[in-house]
């Protein structure tokens, strides 16, 4: 009589995820404290796709909710107290193809040099920050489906406001993203298309 072997994937109950799970160019980074994740897909020319958002475990599944159409191009700006109206702009070291501007009162545009702080010598009421890809005669490597990121319009009530902006090249590779991963155990996850993701 022929012997029939059946193989079952046993899934253990996991309540927490933390760290990096990867396979090839696909990488999922989980933070247990904040319940946030980052997804990055890399190719030979750089980052092909990027998303971040929240995650939740339901039974043996991890449900991921990343960027949507409403926040795909949104530039987050942190506001805090300072001496004068200042803008702190930080990007990756040696990155010179990302530029940032501040639009004052819907009319005046000021260029913001990276890693600098400046104080406008005039009364400002509404500031909007935009960051964009700047290509002075050369091609950018990697995939950049987004060319401009834009903050909401920020109302300035006095002259003691600092705006903190952090921009990375990966932000220009953002994609709308939802996914569901299957948990095998704390070290192994499976994607929808059966790709095995192992913890680094």
Description:
With 200 residues, the protein is an all-beta fold. The protein has 2 domains: 19-70 and 175-199, Lipocalin, CATH 2.40.128; 77-172, Sandwich (Immunoglobulin-like), CATH 2.60.40. It contains no helices and 16 strands. The chain has strands at 19-23, 26-31, 36-43, 46-58, 61-65, 77-81, 86-91, 98-104, 108-112, 126-133, 148-150, 154-155, 161-167, 178-185, 188-190, 196-199. The strands form 3 sheets. It has an 8-stranded antiparallel beta barrel. The protein is elongated. 18% of the residues are buried.
Structure summary:
This protein has 200 residues and is mostly beta strands.
Features:
single chain; 200 residues; mainly beta; Lipocalin; Immunoglobulin-like; 2 domains; 8-stranded antiparallel barrel; 5-stranded antiparallel β-sheet; 16 strands; 0% helix; 48% strand
